[in-house]
Hints:
- By secondary structure, the chain is an alpha/beta fold.
- The protein has 2 domains: 6-124, 3-Layer(aba) Sandwich (Rossmann fold); 135-237, Arc Repressor Mutant, subunit A, CATH 1.10.10.10.
- Helix content is 40%, strand content 22%.
- The chain has helices spanning 14-26, 37-47, 63-72, 88-96, 109-124, 161-172, 180-188, 196-210; strands spanning 6-10, 30-34, 51-55, 78-83, 101-104, 135-138, 141-144, 149-152, 155-156, 178-179, 220-223, 227-230, 235-237.
- The strands form 3 sheets. It has a 5-stranded parallel sheet, sandwiched between helices. The protein has a 5-stranded antiparallel sheet with strand order 9-8-7-6-13, with helices on one face. Strands 10-12-11 form a 3-stranded antiparallel sheet.
- Strand 11 and strand 12 (227-230) form a beta hairpin.
- Helix 4 (88-96) packs across helix 7, helix 6 (161-172) packs across helix 8 and helix 7 (180-188) crosses helix 8.
- The radius of gyration is 17 Å and the shape is globular.
Amino acid sequence: xxxxxxxxxxxxxxxxxxxxxxxxxxxxxxxxxxxxxxxxxxxxxxxxxxxxxxxxxxxxxxxxxxxxxxxxxxxxxxxxxxxxxxxxxxxxxxxxxxxxxxxxxxxxxxxxxxxxxxxxxxxxxxxxxxxxxxxxxxxxxxxxxxxxxxxxxxxxxxxxxxxxxxxxxxxxxxxxxxxxxxxxxxxxxxxxxxxxxxxxxxxxxxxxxxxxxxxxxxxxxxxxxxxxxxxxxxxxxx
Length: 238
């Protein structure tokens, strides 16, 4: 992992900044703050953060607009979007536009820290951002974000939208324990309509499409009582 990580927190709510900044400073991070999209872009130039925690709903330039500016400039910085918006479509679009992760408010500090550390570990190994890659490959499995399709041995997989999103999220976080609750939050958004059973059903659909054996998985491993882990090596492709 990066020895002296730099974190930029972009949020117009002072109560969020006042909680996140000292928490990460105590954890050994150098922290810079911004309250608008314009300031975020300027601070990115000046501070060169490794990771940006970026609020979606900013005054003026939105967080997603900031993200698009960063990706057009081919910035290597990792970006975690932060939002009160409980819309799974909004989250999916942000991921497709190059966000590395998406976290709902109110923020669980230790969960956010774990996600930041996961991104830093990939940076420390000089691995490219999987969040902004147009395509992801793991052995015979190819996931094409632009086409919203996945292929195994060159043949298209029959996956529903939610199951495709689950596969995409797992491939974007290889070798990382992803809890059912995290998938539910990220893909569905918490709602009385859904439960972790929805996640399990999508995992079954993904495994069925991948011809993946749960006992000897090539791709998706169950971590008993906790969640899932993508165990295949993932390569970012243009």
